[in-house]
Amino acid sequence: MYALPKLPYAYNALEPVIDAATMEIHYTKHHQTYVDKLNAALEGQVELQALAIEELLVSNAVPAEIAVAVRNHGGGHYNHSLWWESLSSLEQPPSDALRERLIGAFGSVAAFNEQFTAAATTLFGSGWVWLVQEKLGGLKIVSTANQNTPLTDGLVPLLGLDLWEHAYYLQYQNRRADYVTAWWKIVNWQTVEGRIRYT
Question: Can you give the pTM of this predicted structure?
C-alpha cells in the first residue's frame, strides 16, 4: 500500500511564495486523495502493491481495467512526492556543476529559466512542466498533461512545476505568471542535482 510521504518542512515554511493554507490543502487533501484512490484501484493486486511507485507507473503488468486510475492517481502520488522534495525555504542557486550542465543544454542558465518559464506560462489547462534527463544524459524541458509523468517516456524527472490551479489559486488566483516567477525562489537545487544519473 502506498502512503503520503512526510512533508519535509512546515506548512508555512515556503511563505510568502506559497502560503500555509495552500500547502496544507494541497498536501492533506489533494495528495492524500491520489494516494487513497491509487490504493483503492490496486485492491487485491498484491504484486503491483509491492512495486515502488516509479516501477508501477512503467509496469506492463497493470490490468487494462485499472490502467487509467493507476496513471492518474499513481502519477499524482509520484509527481507530488517529487514536488515536495523539490522545494526549500532556503533560497539557493544551482551549484557550479549543475550550472555547467544547464549551460551545455540550453546555452545559459538564463536561457533555461526563460524557456522553462515560457513553457509553464503557456501550458493549456492542468499539468506539469519538467526539467528531465534523457537516456543519453542530455537535459531538456517537457510538459505533461494532468498527472502524467515523464517516466512513461523513459525520461528522468529532475524538477517539476505543478501547474494545477490547486497549487496556487488561493494565493495567486488567475495570475499563473506571478506564481511561476515567485516559484524560482524556493527551488531546492541540491535535490534537483541529486536526481541526475551518471553513466
Answer: 0.95
> How far is Cα of residue 104 from the mean position of the Cα atoms in its chain?
23
Q: Domain 96-194's class? A: alpha beta
In contact, 49 and 42? CB cutoff 8 Å:
yes
Which alpha helices (H) appear in the chain, and where do they start and end?
20-25, 32-41, 46-49, 53-57, 64-69, 75-85, 96-106, 109-122, 169-172, 176-183, 189-194
Q: Which of 88, 71, 7 is nearest to 34 (CA)?
A: 71
pLDDT tens profile 27-68: 999 999 999 999 999 999 999 999 999 999 999 999 999 999
Q: Give the integer Cα–Cα distance in Å for 199 and 196.
A: 10
The ranges assigned to domains in the chain are 20-85, 96-194
Please state whether the peptide bond connecting residue 16 to the residue before it is cis, i.e. omega within 30 degrees of 0. Answer: yes
